[in-house]
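The freezer alarm interrupted the setup, so I double-checked each line after restarting. Inputs confirmed:
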Amino acid sequence: MFDWITWSIWLVGFIILVVWIVVPYREFKKILRKHRSEGRGDNP
Amino acid sequence: MNYADYAIVFVFMALMFYVGSRLYRWIGSSDDYYLAGRQLTPFVLAAVIAATNVNLYSFIGQAGIAYKTGIPIIWQTWTGNMAMVFAGLFVIPIFRRLRIRTIPEFLELRYSKSVRTFVAVLWILRLSFWLGVVLYTAVIAAQPITGLESFTGWILIFSVVVIVYTVLGGMWSVALTDVIQFVLMLAGALLVLPLAMYQVGWWPGLESSLPEGALTLVQQEGTYNWKFILAIFLLGIEWSCVDQGLLQRAFGAENTRSVARGLVMAAVITTPFALLWNLPGLAARVLYPDLANADMAIPTLIASLVPNIALGLVVVGLLSSQLSTISGNLNGVATIFTSDIYENVINRNASQKEVVRVARIVTFAIGVFMIVFAYLVPLMGGAVNAYLTIIAIMDMPLFIIAVVYGLLWKRANWQGAIGGYLAGSTVGAIGQFYYRLDFNVTTFITASVALILTPVISLLTRDEQSNHIDLIWKAKRTSDEEVAGNSSYNILPKTITGRFGLGILAFGFGIFLTGVLLGSAGSPIASMVAVGGMIVYFAGGLMRAFKD
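Predicted 3D structure, all chains:
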């Protein structure tokens, strides 16, 4: 018999995993672009 | 572990070192070093906070308790998440508006410089010791999983890479590596769950093999009964309002609205995640019922069930959970020292360059203290006891003076704050170490003493209000900066959907509370009602954070 409880928990975890790969990747790219456009990168 | 597993772990450590240390170039000011330039977006912030909050204490300590006593220990994480939603919506946005970096800095604004310095010194010790606990737990878990028994060897593996990249890249390194580590530890947990559940015959097999009541979330009797849920919820409120590790990440958010959204999302994603370590803990109870040490439940399960290569990935997941916690707290301690002691007391005219240099030196020094403390943890009766002791004695009085009286009662003064904190902590320490009281009782005592003595001492001494008190009270309202940046956040929502979200949040909390109280009468529907209430509460929190 298919274990709905375990696989539902697993699926929720998997969806979180995918979302948290895609969205932070995009957001970090945006931050990187902003840093580059500001010409930052030198150390004090 | 075989060579392929070791290679995976090595590649991971090298990647963390490379990614973390490359961000050395992003550090231009002390705000970059402490707070990632206050540029963290909600999803990044949520991952960073979740990665810091989930560590081997969850995978080892909490799963070990689930192994011994059943599922109710999961409320430690779930109520902590509910508390984080509360703090994210109502308390931390106020702190973020004040543009502070640490809670001691808030204490100077609210009370006086002496309160700031006093609490900063205590919290440097508290966080350094907590780092030692985290490191110790990591080593204890790594030994049985990998078969490498050297305590010192593991101490060095865990600490060298993380110290180096945190020293170099500060909060930027912490943020980027945390996001990667969050994904890896979630992936590792997702690998383990089906393997463990398959072995016990999936959910029906688990249910029939466990002792009666082990899957009952709200219990009438036992150590982790309905009273525990209420007590740990209160502790969660305290933790989420004053914990430097959590607050510092929140202060790194790009604006107040992102603080609220990031914290609510972190809470929501960590809630199902908690099942990914507690259910394997319960499965281990069925598979290995005679373990002498319950903390070995998950390490034993992983070492026995997970095949090679996948084992390497799971170990990387566990390492991730630990490195993210260590790096974040290292950065937190360095921030307190540099911001509250160096810049505030030792060298008030320090340039940004000097401040960043000192922050790097302090990060390194705290890393060394962390290693020393890791050797002392076994002398305190193990990681869980050490952790609970710290919380009971040091965190609760700080919550009382910073949040309860700091934000709600103008008459509280610096004498009351220092007196209340000192009395609460001292009485807590006496109760814990001399009378050997239970940590729940110690927490209650420290809170009560601080709660009573702070106003008493304040009323007996001069009514000296800080010059900044109006600034703090003003921070409860939307700031001009938010309006100008089109990122307004209202603590009390102004739109109908925002208010509706707040209503759902309050309604969900009411249902949750009803469920817990039904548990006191042994009602069979208590667990369902409490969990249902928690889900409604989170839905309300999301609506409140995103729709106003």
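Quick read of the result. The mean pLDDT of chain B is 88.
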